[in-house]
Amino acid sequence: MSIIYLKRGKEESLRRYHPWIFSGAIHHIDGEPAEGDLVRVFTSENEFIACGHWQIGSIAVRILTFVDEPIDAAFWQRRLSTALDVRCGIGVAGNPENDTYRLVHGEGDNLPGLVIDIYGQTAVVQAHSVGMHVCREEIAKALKVVMGDAVQNIFYKSETTLPFKAELGQENGFLLGGSPDDVAMENGLRFHIDWLRGQKTGFFVDQRDNRSLLEHYSRGRAVLNMFCYTGGFSVYAMRGGARLVHSVDSSAKAVDLVNENVELNFPGDQRHEAYAEDAFKFLQQMDKDAYDLIILDPPAFAKHKDALRNALKGYTRLNSRAFEKIRSGGILFTFSCSQAVSKDQFRMAVFTAAAQSGRNVRILHQLHQPADHPINIYHPEGEYLKGLVLYVE
Ligand code: SAH
Predict the structure, then answer these.
(1) pLDDT value of residue 163
(2) How many angstroms is it from 301 CA to the middle of ligand 1?
(3) Average pLDDT over residues 206-222
(4) Mean pLDDT throughout 21-32?
(5) From atom 26 of ligand 1, which residue's Cα is the shortest distance away?
(6) In whole angstroms, what is the distance from residue 336 CA to residue 316 CA?
(7) Which CATH superfamily groups domain 2-65?
(8) What CATH code is assigned to 73-187?
(9) How many CA atoms lie within 13 A of 321 on its CB side?
(10) What is the structure's pLDDT at 180?
(11) What pLDDT shows up at residue 238?
């Protein structure tokens, strides 16, 4: 196994358990690691400090352990069973009303580059690093051991999440089982999960708690779910007693999915309609006062730091449209899932939009990612989802 020697002083962040090593911290390498290989990391004092996956790029190593231990079947089982203990401990796993949850959230579960979402009896495994891709079979085996009969299918979905430079030609497919049953339950509501073609692992598991909160505010309201994708917020709003629910997404496929999910939970219910339209155009053209509960959950406007300024402008533009049009006494759920945008920056973008509209706006709730998407305290970069619930006078 190759050994990475750090420059003097560059072990400081590792002593504080930060799980990345940047390429500039490396003094020299003993060996010629290929991308995805395991490497051992030593300080300039020749002392072992970590072991992780080698990567090509500015993050050179993603750390799996700070202990000198083998990365073998027992290692993967220990990490996965700890992750499962957390989900059982917080009540998202082992709950008959909810079989949709994130079992592994990358650095948040000390497994940088790995995501595992559970949908009923199917686990969807997603690698965001070549190292995790290389280990996929081992991870799948450990997952089966840890989950037992609760998992019958393991779908590997990394076609679009692996670095393209690696040229792995990765295809999505089942590593175990292959059941076509794609219905999972979130807080007692049922959803088709398109793990084959859908975004992320097929569903946005991270909005579960925020959807529950929305349900609580839906009674009697006219709801606009903008950027609806599979319609999670729409279905919760319907259960919450909304008067009408309109779902909008620019993708026609998403509109089919939301219609299917509404039909699955509320067959024949006339309160719902879905539109394949651009968000900005829809907001521009819709009547003033048409809605008194609006959800804005756009895709990440800034995937990288350099796109930040434009992203903030985008959030302001989007939110200002909603402030202009929402009925008095309306409630706005507004989100950003851009990791590069901080909580304060997002709040400032929404503040600017509110000020432009000149309306009185109160913050009712400040939202974030749920407990099954934990943030490793030593890795604040893991915080990505933020939202505000606003009362618009
Ligand atoms: N709220 C969803 C997740 C939203 S993901 C949920 O709870 O599951 C973002 C969605 O925005 C995607 O489905 C994408 O198709 C859609 N989208 C992207 N750009 C858009 C635009 N300009 N107008 C409308 N929808 C857009």
Answers:
(1) 81
(2) 11
(3) 98
(4) 97
(5) 250
(6) 11
(7) PUA domain (2.30.130.10)
(8) 3.30.750.80
(9) 20
(10) 82
(11) 98
Atom of ligand 1 nearest to the CA of 295: 1
Distance 225 CA to ligand 1 centre (A): 10
* Residue 51: active-site member: no
Domain parsing of the chain, residue ranges: 2-65, 73-187, 204-392
Nearest CA to ligand 1 atom 16: 227
Task: Say whether pLDDT at 81 is over 80.
Answer: yes
- pLDDT over 80 (residue 363): yes
Contacts of 353 (CB under 8 A, 6+ apart): 315, 316, 317, 318, 319, 320, 322, 323
Q: Which residue has the least CA distance to atom 19 on ligand 1?
A: 250
Mean pLDDT of 184-191: 98
Query: Which residue among 205, 225, 227, 335 has the greatest number of ligand 1 atoms within 8 angstroms of its CB, and so is best to mutate?
Result: 227
Compute the average pLDDT of residues 141-153: 97
Q: Which amino acid is at 175?
A: L
At residue 95, what are phi and psi to the nearest 5 degrees?
-120, 115
| Dist. CA 231 → ligand 1 center (Å) | 10
Cβ of 249 less than 6 Å from ligand 1:
yes
Q: Closest by alpha carbon to 61, among 40, 82, 46, 43?
A: 40
Distance CA 107, CA 209 (A): 21
Q: How many CB atoms lie within 10 A of CB 4?
A: 24
In angstroms, how far is CA 28 from the centroid of its own chain?
Answer: 35
pLDDT at 128: 95
Alpha-carbon distance of 194 to 230, in angstroms, equals 9
Assigned CATH for 204-392: 3.40.50.150
Hey, what are 135's tokens?
A: 């280990």
Give tens-digit pLDDT for 236-258.
999 999 999 999 999 999 999 99
